[in-house]
Amino acid sequence: MRMIHIDSYDYDTMQLAKPVYDSRRRILLAAGRSIHPTYLQKIKELNIRSLIVEDAESAGITLDEMLDMPTWMDAIKLVEEVYTEVKRNKSISQITVKRIQEFVGKLLMEVRNRPIIVLIPSTALTPELIPYAHAVNVALLSVQVGTKLNYNMIQLRDLAIGALLHDIGKVIGNEENHPTEGFELLRKTRELKVLTTHVAFQHHESLDGSGYPRRIRGEEFLEVGQIGGIANLYENLISKEKYPPHLAMEMIMTKSENTYSHAVVQAFCNGVPTYPPGTKVKLNNGQVGIVYKIDQNLHRPTVRILSTMEEISLADQPTLMIQEVDQSIETV
Ligand SMILES: [Fe+2]
């Protein structure tokens, strides 16, 4: 299976590999079938932009690096419910904190089983759900970075909760003050740790003092704030700015030592692949292939050449390079 832009969907060659949901999180189209043009049009009208499909070219690619869809949707539901509660009560109840803690425990188990992580794009959902999907993806990335930095389970849990709620201040504030509003709200929530509240407070700060809301610099910018920041940046590049993953990764790498510490950037690069499985690529020898799996080297995947079905590990072939990426490549 692989991720595609909805405009690249081909009725004759592709089947849906993961379900499509509506804005109320109900299954609109189940996996396993081709999408009839009428339905395709309907999903496009809902502004869903990405699909996960199965086709001959991507056969054998399992995308195990992705969280399973029901767990992802449950996480989105939880975040949506917390937002609704904060909108109504301007506070988070003890019961809700308990639910968040329990769910994050489950999420941690899921993530810990995966050496690397590939995000389900939030653009696979309708725009109404994207802010919540964004929060969930930021949490998944944060846990991944924390794991690479050898955080223990308690640290990971507190980090994940902070990442899930990093933008909660937007419910009561605006773009400029949402980190402060979020921090104040979370600080009033007794059960939440300082570490959690600072993910929300600092996720827009920068080591060089150019961030907001406090323009802190150097050591004041806590590692958990940096993790929340780098995860937020990457997720926005992918979902909002429509960057392909390899360019988003390039951008992340330019942030080392000026926005985030080298250690945090390094940990990010060690947990997120440059080319997710299913990416179509053209090599410098002219061959066109599809990223088949990622094993020993996160940035040098195994590519299946489409004309011969031969599998080439770029980690073992130092002279071969990925020259072009994407669906615009003409296959021969
Ligand atoms: Fe934010």
Mind sketching the topology for me?
Layout: E1 2-5, E2 15-16, E3 20-21, E4 27-29, H1 37-45, E5 50-54, H2 69-89, H3 94-112, H4 130-148, H5 153-164, H6 178-188, H7 194-202, H8 223-239, H9 245-253, H10 262-269, E6 280-283, E7 288-293, E8 302-305, E9 311-313, E10 322-325
Antiparallel strand pairs: 1-5, 2-5, 3-4, 6-7, 6-10, 7-8, 8-9
Helix pairs in contact: 2-3, 2-4, 3-4, 3-5, 4-5, 4-8, 5-7, 6-7, 7-8, 8-9
Bound molecules: fe (ii) ion.
Fe (ii) ion (FE2) is lined by residues 166-167, 178, 203-204, 232.
Keywords: Hydrolase
Protein name: HD-GYP domain-containing protein
Domain HD/PDEase: 132-246
Please trace the helix and strand order, writing H or E for each element: EEEEHEHHHHHHHHHEEEEE
Strand sequence of the main sheet, in spatial order? Answer: 9-8-7-6-10
The CATH homologous superfamily of the largest domain: Hypothetical protein af1432
- Reading off the top of the CATH hierarchy, the class of the largest domain is best stated as Mainly Alpha
Separation, N- and C-terminal Cα atoms: 20 Å
CATH topology (level 3) name of the largest domain: Hypothetical protein af1432
The ligands bound in this entry are: fe (ii) ion
Determine the structural class based on helices, strands and strand pairing: alpha+beta
- Largest sheet features: 5 strands, antiparallel
The radius of gyration over CA amounts to 20 Å
Helix percent band: 40-55%
Annotation, overall tally of beta strands: 10
Strand content: 5-15%
Low-confidence parts, pLDDT < 50 over ≥5 residues?
none
The coarse overall form would be: globular
Enzyme class: hydrolase
Organism: Cytobacillus spartinae
InterPro entries: HD/PDEase_dom, HD_domain, HDIG_dom
EC number: 3.1.4.-
